[in-house]
Amino acid sequence: MSSLSLAVRDSTTMLRRNLLHARRYPSLTLNLLLTPIMLLLLFVYIFGDAMGAGLGEGAGRDAYIAYVVPGVLLMTIGSTLVGTAVSVATDMNEGIIARFRTMAIHRGSVLFGHVAGSVLQAILAVVLVGAVGVAIGFRSTDAGFVEWVAAFGLLALFALAFTWIAVGMGLGSPNAEAASNSATPLILLPLISSAFVPIGSMPGWFQPIAEYQPFTPAIETLRGLLLGTEIGNSGWIAVAWCLALTALGYHWSKSQFDRDPK
Q1: pLDDT, mean of residues 123-136
Q2: What is the average pLDDT across 188-217?
Q3: CA torsion sign, 236 to 242 to 243 to 244?
Q4: C-alpha to C-alpha distance for 165 and 187, rounded to whole angstroms
Q5: What is the value of pTM for the model shown?
Q6: How far is CA 259 from each of CA 18, 73, 234, 254, 255, rounded to the nearest angstrom?
Q7: Which residues contact 92 (CB under 8 A, 6 or more apart)?
Q8: For 108-202, where are the alpha helices, taking DSSP H only?
């Protein structure tokens, strides 16, 4: 077999392993999935009328549902990353990765298996949260086939970029608890973006913090694709963030994985 065929075979085996782990131990994924769902329901049903009024004259809960769902979908991806970091750190501490190093398998397949499995879980989580959004009234009447494909591509690229970052966090953590703590900011970062309120309504000193970070352009792009609002240059900025974070996370993870164990 060629080296490419071996890499694909071994990566597929590692992907199957990680999906089996997720199926046998679903509690972590489900607990992390509850965070964006609870925030969605809280902001819509408790703060929806007040938040909607801030979007413009005559706006209400329905307008706020349309505004907040795209942000919560991106936040869902951030929530699943804690499970990725914990899973990688657990493999490191239990010695399974050290054993994989001694086996005749493609070295990169271990990392690619974790990444592919985590991206699939993130997309599934986005679908489930999106279904909750539809159930409470979210509608995307302005999105055609091209817009839906672009939205799905953005979500997948965003999940890939941050999954590599989470893998690096897991490899660099001494234990699962530390990995969970190091990945927590990936859940909190959307809270200081345009996910829940427009940036213009924030204090002036805080607006640059919300604007110059990866979640805000991705949220604005997804919102524009699904609702037909203006995207501007947010699309290119979001893609640039994703590509940069993917490259950074990949090289960071690879350097730690290739490091000789102590």
Answers
A1: 92
A2: 90
A3: positive
A4: 13
A5: 0.88
A6: 23, 35, 37, 8, 6
A7: 170, 171, 173
A8: 108-135, 145-172, 176-183, 185-188
